[in-house]
Specification:
Pfam families: NAD_binding_10
Number of strands: 10
Number of domains: 1
CATH topology: Rossmann fold
Order of helices and strands: HEHEHEHEHHEEEEHEEH
Shape: globular
Strand order of the largest sheet: 3-4-5-9-7-10
Low-confidence stretches: 70-83
Radius of gyration: 16 Å
Number of helices: 8
Strand content: 15-25%
Protein name: NAD(P)-binding domain-containing protein
Length: 215
C-alpha cells in the first residue's frame, strides 16, 4: 500500500477529500500507512474471525477498491484464506454492509518482472483474476472491473485509452499514477457501473473518457 499502485491510489483519493482505509496482512506495514494518512486494518488471513474484521472495516465506507492481486504472486492478500478468496471476501462484506460501489483492478498483461516472479504460477494467477471478475460480477453491487495494461513507472499524464465491450483488452502499458487516477475517477463515474473496461496509456483525458462511455 505504501509503494506502487496502492500509494498512488491513496494520494489520489486524499486529493478528492476521501479517507482511504488500507487492508494489510502485516503489522509491520502499519507505520508507513499511518504516515501516508491511510487508516490501517491488519488482517490475519487464516483467522476464523477474518470475515467479521473485514465487515467491521467496511462498515460506513462509501466504496471498496480491490487491487491487491489474487491469492497467487506479488501483492496478494493470501491464497486460500481461512474464509474465501480476496474477491469473494471483500465483495461479500461489501454486500453485507451495504457498500454498493466496488471497483476491481484485474489484470491481463503482467509485466516481465511480475511474470518472472510468478514463474510457473502465472497460469494460476491469470485464472484467479478471471475467477475474481466472475465473483464480483455476480454480486448485488455497483461494480466496475478495470483491466489495466502492464503497470509502468511513468510520470502522470492524466490521459488514457479506454476500451469497453464484452471482453475488452488493454492495448499497452499504463503508468501507476494514471491508473490510480482512473480508479478514483471511476468511483464517481456513473457510466462505469456494471462495466468491464480495459485501460492503457492513451490520448484521452481520464474524466472525459469515463464520462463519454456509451450506455
Amino acid at each position: 500500500m505504501t509503494t506502487g499502485l496502492g500509494a498512488r491510489l491513496a494520494r489520489s483519493l486524499q486529493d478528492r477529500a476521501m479517507v482511504p482505509v488500507g487492508l494489510v496482512r502485516s503489522a509491520g506495514q502499519v507505520p508507513a500507512l499511518k504516515e501516508a494518512g491511510v487508516e490501517p486494518v491488519v488482517l490475519d488471513t487464516h483467522s476464523a474471525g477474518l470475515r467479521s474484521v473485514v465487515v467491521s472495516a467496511l462498515t460506513g465506507a462509501s466504496a471498496v477498491v480491490l487491487a491487491a492481486g489474487t491469492g497467487t504472486g506479488p501483492g496478494s492478500l493470501g491464497g486460500a484464506t481461512a474464509a474465501a478468496s480476496p474477491a469473494a471476501l471483500l465483495s461479500g462484506a461489501a454486500e453485507r454492509t451495504g457498500v454498493r460501489r466496488f471497483v476491481l483492478v484485474s489484470a491481463l498483461l503482467p509485466g516481465d518482472a511480475q511474470r518472472a516472479a510468478l514463474g510457473d504460477d502465472l497460469p494460476a494467477y491469470l485464472r484467479e483474476k478471471a475467477d475474481a471478475e466472475r465473483v464480483v460480477r455476480e454480486r448485488d453491487l455497483d461494480w466496475t472491473v478495470l483491466r489495466p495494461g502492464t503497470l509502468e513507472e511513468a510520470a502522470p499524464t492524466g490521459r488514457i485509452l479506454l476500451r469497453s465491450g464484452a471482453d475488452p483488452r488493454p492495448e499497452g502499458g499504463i503508468g501507476r499514477a494514471d491508473l490510480a487516477a482512473t480508479v478514483t475517477e471511476a468511483l464517481t463515474a456513473p457510466r462505469t457501473v456494471h462495466r468491464t473496461l480495459a485501460v492503457s496509456a492513451g490520448p484521452d483525458d481520464i474524466s472525459r473518457a469515463l464520462a463519454d462511455l456509451r450506455s
